Amino acid sequence: MAHISTAYLGPVQQYCKMIQYPEIFLETQENFLKQTYRNRCIIATANGPLALSIPVVKPDTLKCIIKDMKISDHGNWRKLHWNALVSAYRMSPFFEYYEDDFAPFYEKKYEYLLDFNENLRELICNLIDINPRIILTEEYIPNADDDYREIIRPKHEGEDSSFHPVPYYQVFREKFGFIPNLSIVDLLFNMGPESAIVLNKCIY
Q1: 170-194 per-residue burial string, b: 16 or more CB within 10 A, e: under 16
Q2: Could you report the per-residue pLDDT of 150-183, keeping only the tens digit for each?
Q3: What are the phi and psi torsion angles at 162 (to 5°)?
């Protein structure tokens, strides 16, 4: 079993774990950390990689566990994120096929980040046709076995010896070359039903 953190449209690396391990402990009791995949994803645009961040409500205390972290309505982020996804992937082979599945997430207001992330993850797993056994943690266990809570984060590439991203078709590949470990939606919108095949190839 592996331990992972919640993620907003998590990276390819995270979905590899959901194939690689029969059980996944998804962390609900850790403290929220800024500048991680917990509230941001990275997509490929005509101008290169772009980070989309969900604004969160500043907690009353210095620390806030992830299950209690609330989403802020600041900056009309839902519309901005959806427009960015449409602009980046409308020319991809499968965006039109999946568009109606994702659009409602940017129309409905979710109170909690964990709920939003998890509902998106469940949708994506269904679309990719993978069925991980997800167990939400009830307490925080430090230094757990097969712990990817800190390894799967921006700028930590290369720390996971079992993940080896393989190239797949990307809309802007001729312009920027292949960009590894983007949000899972980059893989899904570009590869569609073959996404699970690519994920399996990334596992060593």
Answers
A1: bbbeeeeeebbbbbbbbbbbbbbeb
A2: 999 997 766 899 999 999 999 999 999 999 999 9
A3: -95, 0
Q: Which of 100, 136, 179, 128 is nearest to 25 (CA)?
A: 136
C-alpha to C-alpha distance for 122 and 118, rounded to whole angstroms: 6
pLDDT in tens, 21-54: 999 999 999 999 989 999 999 999 999 999 999 9
Beta strands in 79-181 (DSSP E): 133-136
Residues 6+ apart with CB under 8 A from 77: 53, 54, 55
Which pLDDT belongs to residue 134?
97
Closest CA to 15 of 34, 31, 2: 2
**Own/partner pairs for 124-130, CB < 8 Å, 24+ apart?**
124/9, 124/15, 124/184, 124/185, 124/188, 125/15, 125/18, 127/98, 127/101, 127/188, 127/195, 128/15, 128/184, 128/188, 128/195, 128/196, 128/199, 129/193, 129/196, 130/15, 130/18, 130/19, 130/196, 130/199
The token duo for 13 is 């690396």
60 band by pLDDT with thresholds 50, 70 and 90: confident
Whole-prediction pTM: 0.96
Place of tokens 């390894």: 151
